[in-house]
User: What shape does this take?
Amino acid sequence: MSYFAAAAARVEGAWTAAEVNLRGVTDIEEVADRLRDVEPDADLSLLFVEADDTYLVILRLDEGEDLRVFGSDSAYAEESRLGALLVGDLKTSVTGLEDADEPRPAASGDEETEQPAVDPEADPVGDADILADLGIPAPKLLALSGSEGMMPADVTAEICQVLGCADEVEELREV
Assistant: This one.
């Protein structure tokens, strides 16, 4: 299974990005170490792992500590060794939601917009509030990652646009 792993690290308000090679990692802590190595002095480090145009995993470190993980679909753990390593130990339901049965709010302000169809087969896992303090609350992250027709690269681009690091991450794809 092919993957693309892009790290975005913020130091004193400025973002840098780097592709991260995850070949040969043996556990989630080794993945976290590789993320730390991108920018050791970062106050915030994010790793976006996109696999086979199907799965997205987001890892977050605040000041190099307290690893948090969100996965768009628990099935990734069954599909590959890397998937098992990244999301295999996560709970089967996401955290950070008041009531998962409530309708999801429109993604853009007060405008009346039709929400994209959400993939009923997706089983997101981990911490859906991983980006809430950065302007992407859990319902929005779940809607983005579960929208039919949205590729993991599209979700990463949308998230990075909100965070202000879209250009840095997009440059990695062009190399």
In short: The two ends are 20 Å apart (CA to CA). Confidence is low (pLDDT under 50) at residues 98-116. DSSP finds six helices and seven strands in the chain.
